[in-house]
Amino acid sequence: MSKTQKIITAFLSITACLLIILVGFASWETYQYWVSQPLGAAIPTSPYTPIGLPATWTPTPGSVGLEPYVAGTLASRPLCGGPPIMNILAIGSDTRGTGYTWGLSDVMRVVRIDFVKPSIMVLDFPRDLWVYIPYIADNINGQDHEKLNQAYLYGNPGDGFKYWDDPSAGPGLLALTLNLNFGVKVDHYIAVNMNTFVKLVDAVGGIDVTLDESKGGGHLQKGAEHLDGTEALALARNRTEGVFSRGLNQNIVLCGLQKKLTSPSVVTEIPQLVSSFQGAVQTDLSPAIMSQLACLAAQLPRKNIALYSFPENLFTGARKYDPVFKKDVFIWDVDFSILRNYVAEFQSGSWSDSGETSTSNQSTSFCQ
Phi/psi at 127 (nearest 5 deg)? Predict the structure, then answer.
């Protein structure tokens, strides 16, 4: 090979390498942009007015809490590239269809994810709370109060609703309603309808649960049970033992699903699961955030998953005339200031149990 040929060959080789690097960089930039994009409209942050711990509010002795986040320390570095704290509004829609244009929020839980500890705290909100819902008064003859689970319906576009124009639709209006009534601060949301929930449980091969008593009129027996998607949904919606018992049943299902998703046989399939269910859920989570959550789940001790509900003895059943339905409807009568105190403490990373030994008043449980 002549000297001129060697120079030309070297030049072409260097040029080819530069092109490969540039193409690779462009592909990486495209990938990074894709994984950072939310799969749905983000919740607007400007209307939120988080309520801090009141000056008179002090945790009761024995409260369940997390260590405070101290910036700059080695121990305070979040895992998996996540933020120190992330709050997600998890919604279970009662629609039996495949979309999210309508349906009430049958399940409403705020999930506080601590990437530092790591830990997860989950707070359940009863659906029959009579609350102020913004943006609906102009659409239903000046009425600005309805049941909490109707905020999700009124924000979604189906059946002539969509009473506010924000792209976050039902999840956004529900998040705003929770904020205005109870001081809840939400960063992200995910809503799952019944059809998708059944398919998700079936996709992972069902879940294993342990029941301390028979459920569903004896359909599920005391002891170990393996549930497919339809059976898991039936247990989660079962309230034959009372309204608050349904929350406990949902805890059983959630813990069973969490255990299955973090099992060695399933955890490696999570990316494929996420891909297969893309478009089947209503969420503003991005692929990057989902990866952070999957990463954290693999490192999270089950004892660090705490499930909370407001103490049952705070609530009294009552009837309220609803001008929309033109009849009396069932609601829970409760002091909202007490609930706001609990929410403020929850969002600070702690929870004060009442100390009651009665099962009906226990407000904390853990995945075992």
Answer: -80, -20
Which is nearest to 330 in space by CA: 348, 346, 317, 316? 317
pLDDT one-digit tens code per residue, 279-317: 788 999 888 888 888 888 888 888 899 999 999 999 999
Instruction: Supply 91's token pair.
Output: 């919604």
User: 321 - beta bridge partners?
Assistant: 328
- Given a contact cutoff of 8 angstroms between Cβ atoms, the answer to whether 123 and 306 are in contact is no
User: For residues 346 and 353, what is the distance between their CA atoms, to the nearest angstrom?
Assistant: 11
- At 315, which amino acid appears? F
As a whole-number percent, the residues of the chain with pLDDT over 70 amount to 74
Measured between alpha carbons, how far is 90 from 111 in angstroms, rounded to an integer? 7
Which tens digit of pLDDT belongs to each residue from 327-360? 999 999 999 999 999 999 999 999 876 444 334 4
Q: How many angstroms separate the CA atoms of 85 and 175, rounded?
A: 17
CA distance 96 to 76: 43
3-state SS, residue 267:
helix
CA dihedral over 37, 284, 278, 367, signed as positive or negative: positive
Point out the least confidently predicted range of 35-49, 85-99, 191-205, 339-353.
35-49
What residue type is 90 in one-letter code? A
Residue 81 to residues 38, 89, 290, 298, Cα–Cα distance (Å): 17, 21, 12, 14
User: What pTM value is reported for the model?
Assistant: 0.80
By the 8 A CB rule, do 176 and 183 touch? no
Alpha-carbon span 366 to 308, nearest angstrom: 9
* DSSP β-bridge partners for residue 120: 113, 305
Amino acid at 163: Y
CA distance 355 to 232: 31
Listed in sequence order, the DSSP H helices in the chain are: 3-36, 149-155, 169-182, 194-203, 229-237, 243-261, 264-267, 270-276, 287-299, 336-348
Give the best-scoring range by mean pLDDT among 38-42, 64-68, 141-145, 314-318.
Answer: 314-318
